[in-house]
Every structure is written in structure tokens, then in C-alpha cells.
Amino acid sequence: MWSAAGCRWLGALGALAVAVGGYAAGTLPKQPEPWGLWAVRGTATTVTGAVLAYLGLTVLVAAWLRYGTLLARGEREARDRVLATLVLWTTPLALAPPLHSADVYSYIAQGAMVLEGYDVYGAGPSVLGPGDLGADAAASVGGHWTDTPAPYGPVFLVLAQAVVKATGGEIVPAVLGMRLLALGALALIVWAVRGLAGAAAGSGRVGGALWLAVLNPLLLIHVVGGMHNDGLMIGLMLSGVLLAGRGRWVLGSVLAGLAMMIKSPAVVALLFIGVMVARRHGGVRGVVKGLTLPGLVAGAVAAGATLLAGTGFGWLRTQSVAGAIHTALSLTSDVGLGLGLLLGDGPEPVKGVVQKLGLVLAVGIILELARRAWKGRIDPVLGLGLSLVALVALSPMVQPWYLLWGTCAVAAVAWDARAGQVLAVLSAALVYETAPSGATPWYGFVAGGVVLAAGLVWVRRSPWERPLEGGAVPVAGGDLERTRP
Known about the structure:
It contains 20 helices and no strands. By secondary structure, it is an all-alpha fold. Helix 16 (347-375) packs antiparallel against helix 17. The longest helix has 31 residues, at 171-201.
């Protein structure tokens, strides 16, 4: 089988094939851009590019899984060259057109809407006219999102606005500006995961943590290639948790608040920062502090960011807009729709009830994991990761890259436990769900299903057996009993 060096170069070759194929079959702008770099090609060229991209993706996934197996066996070369591998795998994707999603065009259009004076929480990118900044990006926004208000917080809109202002809204420079933000998010995730993994289990485990978190093809394709702002949310959120674990919970809460102002699921991190505070102080006093102070700090950050951004508090009412769009990966939406069709002519009311029940169940799971972390039965970072996985599994709207919310946290403290191995399989399967063009074709689900089935067989036959619970669990970020307030 392949050595660590072989995996490194095969993965780089796969990433290069994905990038090259993307120039013909990626999520290209619908309006011609002046350089002709990302022009829509003929059918034969597009199909050839898609085949090349899928082959490259398969090579990348195979190289990644093999690399993880070498890390699980303790191979030193694999462990010591993770960052070099990351650079090799990331570089081709950093130079590619948008891949597997048109969301970056929404980001650019929403930044332009702020500059042009439109209410980004009251309308979608379709309000941008031909003479407005970002009009070409708005024309390239996919499907339902054209008329959907922004579900993102004001911090992200300020960043998108800055990119549009710096590039004049020209589509290629603006996309590359958004990719710079994505690469910055990647660097932030690397820093946070290294810190959490090194503190939780010793520096020898850092390589494996980075393997599951940032070498993950799901992250490379959707954060670097697709430029999803989830990467920035994850980076800020985990950085906040790392600082809180080191005793700097105020600054950690500030970063968690900023992460919330990118995307709202980061609010879950505040509960586990609260657990860290409660464990440090102990007793009823510690619990009261943990339940109130991080939330107050993050709330102040959210309010201040909203006022400074000048975009208003409309983000409070747009958090549910994405849930109105049915996604096949949402278990509660699928079950609700099926029950609604069986029980009556109008499936939407039943679907809505099932979606709400799913969220209630997710909240219950999150609270139970927080209780276990407070009792010292699991690491708070692991509790955060599993909570975010549960939230995604039971959410009314699910995209493949949402799995990264929890996976990056689990990677930091339990990449080689059964949970980490299962999340690796899920990542490998979900990366096939969207095509390079951003569409969700049937064959993507078939390919993902095949990978999932094969991966579960692998987990059963060659399990990574490190336990998640039991006894005294080290807290990622440092010994809370010894850190400063």
C-alpha cells in the first residue's frame, strides 16, 4: 500500500485534477467575465472536466483515508509532514474557480447590497440591478437563494462588503478576495486544532487531529474550493474554546460571539465555554457564572457588532429562512414530508412539526452532553463536537459541509476514537453529494452511498478503539484548575 509520501503526492495530484476539471465543470459565473478564465464551455468539454474532477476527488479521498490509517498506526513521517501535505493539497484548489457551490456569489452580492444601501435582511440578491455593484455575482446566484434574505451575521457582511469595495465588485477579483478569507479561516482552524489537540493529549496526536480537521477533503473542497463561510465560523469558534480552556474565557467568549455573527450555530460553543468556567470555579457559584457570563459577553459582542456594521438586527428574524428550502440530507425534513404526504394533502404543517421536534431533540442531546462535560465524564471540546453533529443531524436544513462544524472539534480530542473514524467515513461520503457545478445529481448520492457502505465495513473490520469516556478526562486547552481568571 501507499507510503505517507505516496499519499501526499497522490492527494496533490487528485487536488490538481479537481482544480483543472473545475475550469470546465466548476460553478462558473453565468455572466461573461472580461478575462475569459471562467467561461462556460461546450457540453463535451464540460463533461470531460466533470469526469476529471470526480476522478481527482476519488484519488484525493483515497489518499486521505490511507494517510489517516498510517497516522492511526503511529507512522512518524505521516505525523511530521501533515502541514506540508496540507500545503500541497490546498494550493491547486486555491487557484481554481468556485467549486461545488454557488454560495460565494451570494456572499459577494450580499456585500454589494450593503454598499448599495439595500436591506440585506429584507430582500435577496435579485434586487441588484445591472448598474449596481455585484450585479454579475447576483446573476450567478443559484436557485432559491436569489430571493432569499441573508441568514448571516453582520460581521460576515462587513467582510463581504470589504471584499466588494476593494475589488469594485468585479466577479473574478471578488471571488479571489473571498478565497483569501477562506484561506485565513483555514489557518485559524489549524491554529486552534493544534492548540486543542496538543493540550488534550500531547503533541504526538496533533498530526491526526489536523488530518481529520483540515486535510479532510470535505473541508478542502467546500471551505477552500467553495469558500463557504462555515470555515470562518469554525475557526473563530474553536479559537474561542481554546482560549477559554486556557483560562481566558472572556476573550474566548468574544471570539465565540464573533463566530455567532458569522453563522448562528456557533452559539453552542458558549454552553461549553460555560462548562469550562463552571468547572474552574466549582459549586453553585461556578454554575451560575458558567451559565451567565459567557453569554453576556457574547451578547454584548453581537449587539456591538450589529450597531457598528449598520446592517440592523434583521439577522434575528432571518435565521430560519434557510429551513424553508428542502434539502435531501435533512432527516427531519424528509420524514416530515413523507408523513405529511401520507396523512393529508398538505404536507407542510406536518413537516414543520417534525422539524421542530427534531430541534427539541437536538437541544436535549446538547444539554445532556454539556452535563456530562460538567461532571468530567467527557472533554468539553468533545461534547461541543458531538453536540454540533447532533444539531446538524436533526436540523431542518442540512448541507454536506455542515458536518465540519462538529468534525473539527471532535478531531482535536478524539480523531482516533470510533467517533473520529465514523466522521471520517461520513466526510468521505458527503463530499460526493454535490457536483463541481454545485448541482446535486442523483449519481452523487449513489457515489456517496457506496463510499458510506464501504466505509462502515472498514470501521467494523478495522476499528479505532480509543474510548471517548471514562475516568478523568483531560480538558483541551489546559488544566482549568491552574489557569488564570
